[in-house]
Every structure is written in structure tokens, then in C-alpha cells.
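Throughout our pipeline, every protein is held as a single compact record rather than as scattered files. The record that follows is passed on verbatim for readers who wish to inspect the format:
___
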Amino acid sequence: MKNPVLGDSVEVIDAASSDNASGAENQQERFSIESISPDIGHFLAGFALGEGSFMLVCRVRPDHRRRWRISAAFNASQIDVAPLELFRRTLRCGTIRKAGNGGWYYEVNTLRDIQTAVIPFFRRYPMVGQKALEFEMFERAVELMSAGLNDATFVEVLQIRERMNGGGKRRHTMGKILRDYTPNLEPSRAQG
């Protein structure tokens, strides 16, 4: 499919069938935020303002000390795959997959890619309003996670998560995580 912005065929990466979802091209060229055209950068930042999310995801992991794994992710979804492919090509990371609603889903969920591509991109092409605040909280959580989480910073990341995305639709609340799986941690003691 020819695309005037991308200039060639749109290559869709299906995370389920790709061994190297970020693509071989990423291994050959070093990502440089300065190499992004301002037109493309501002377009993608605007697109993310409406269609993107910064998330801190908690999953039960019996093999982890706290029985929970916290991970960071940036995603965007859209019926038209072209803007998502533009994101993937511009940031040189992430995966695109078919969404259950007939649309497409772009996601970057490795801490390294978030630190080296997503965060620098949104620092250079900032968003406005609530999404800008979400990004600041996300950036702080990623900084904490990168340093390694101790009990206090684990709680701090959970507290950031609770404030993000308007509280969001949470299957697992901070209280449940701390009560059920880390009984020695309590938000009031960790703040202290």
C-alpha cells in the first residue's frame, strides 16, 4: 500500500509472529531524536495526544519477590494503521498488531526502548494539558523502575500509577496489591 508520508509500502508487524518485533533495521542504524523531521514529530505528538496512552501495568508474577511485576508501556490505537506504522518507523521500536475491534494497536513495552526512544521523543515534541502531566508521571515511574525497585520505590510507582489516566480501569488496585501480596508494605509507611 503506497502512503504519501511513509513513501513506500506499509509494513505491519504482528507481535505474535515476529521474532524481532523492532525489526532488523533498528540494529543497523542508531536512533537519533534529532533526525526526526519536525513535521513528523509534531504530527505524532498530536496524534498521541488524542490516541496514545502512557501506562504502568501490574501483573501477577509468582516468581517475583512481591508476586507482582510492574511494567511501563506506551501505546496508541487506530482503525488506520498508517499513523501507527509511522510511529514505529520514526521511533524504530515497538510492535503493531491487529486489535480485537478491527483496528490496529501500536505498543512500546520494553524499558530500554521507552528510555531511549519514547521519553526523548516526547521531551522534544511535548504534549499539552492532562496528557503532558501523564507523561511527567510516566517518566518519573520509568526513572524509578530503571534504578531498580526497592520496597519504598515499588510503592511510589504504584502511587504514580493510581494518579495516572484518571485512576483508569484497574483490575488490581494499589490497596489490593499491597494488602494481598506485599503485606509488610503500606502506603502511609512508604511515604514517610
Notes: The radius of gyration is 18 Å.
